[in-house]
Structures are given as C-alpha cells and as structure tokens.
Amino acid sequence: TGGSMKSGSAAKYPTMSLEELKQLPVQKIAAKDSILFLWTTTPLLDETFEIMKAWQFAYKTAIYWYKIKSWGLGFWFRGEVELCLLGIRGKVKAFP
Q: Tell me, which GO biological process terms does this entry list (predicted)?
C-alpha cells in the first residue's frame, strides 16, 4: 500500500513523495508531441492525475491489469487491479 501502514511500500523499498514525483523534469525531457504511460493503483488515482498534469500531459484513457490469481491488498475491494494511464502532450494521433 502507499499508506502509513508498516506493511506499506516505504517499508520495503525507497519511495518518493507526491511532490518529489511532480518535480521530476519529465516535461523537459519528453518530446513536444509524446505519449505517457503511467502505472498507478486505484487508491492513488487523484495523485496520479496531479502528477500527469504537473508533467504537462492530458489524460486520455487507461488499460487495466486484472490480477486474477491474486488476493489483493487494501480494505475495500482488495485492489485486484492496477491501471496504466495514457496521457498525451502536443499533437499525437490515436493508435490505428
């Protein structure tokens, strides 16, 4: 989890704060016309949209990874899905 529990991701490996992620210079190194694929979990959707906006990408759609054989983490629906958000900046044509 990304929460404050001792079992959260910060207890297992180094993490970055929301502000640190937003400050990454993605908008400076990405091409003027480019696509961003950004993985997230459902509890962190609001924060992920903030990051995408800070990097100057506009959200378009998402793909979902359903973890069929996994007993997910979390308290409400056990988090058995992760999302990969697709954002664009500039002029990018949709996939054929």
A: methylation
